[in-house]
Sequence to fold (141 residues):
Amino acid sequence: MSNITIYHNPACGTSRNTLEMIRNSGNEPMIIHYLDTPPTRDELINLISDMGITVRALLRKNVEPYEHLGLNEEKFSDEQLIDFMLQHPILINRPIVVTPLGTRLCRPSEIVLDILPEGQKGAFTKEDGEKVIDETGKRVN
Fold:
């Protein structure tokens, strides 16, 4: 069993690319489909703290509830923003990956490479055709 967890949305290309880079390192992560199984309040607060980001930085802005709820206004406290994310998990930006080396919001997906315990086992090309890892397992710049 892997000690890597991904909060995943299979409808998201960035999330799918991140998952495949984890697999390309030889790991099968625990996959949490966070839209179906959202984190608890404590889990969400811990993830935000472990990532070292603000609550607002985890807020997904280009989804329907964001505009409807007026979340672009700075009047909401962190607690209120967390409440909105728990009520509407689509507002939680993704993918979030937890490994022994850290917790990151993997946008862009290549950020996951910084926290994977093992290197890439072979070439990897993102769904859009961008080559990320060459045949020797090295990152392409």
The helical segments are 13-24, 41-51, 55-58, 64-68, 78-87.
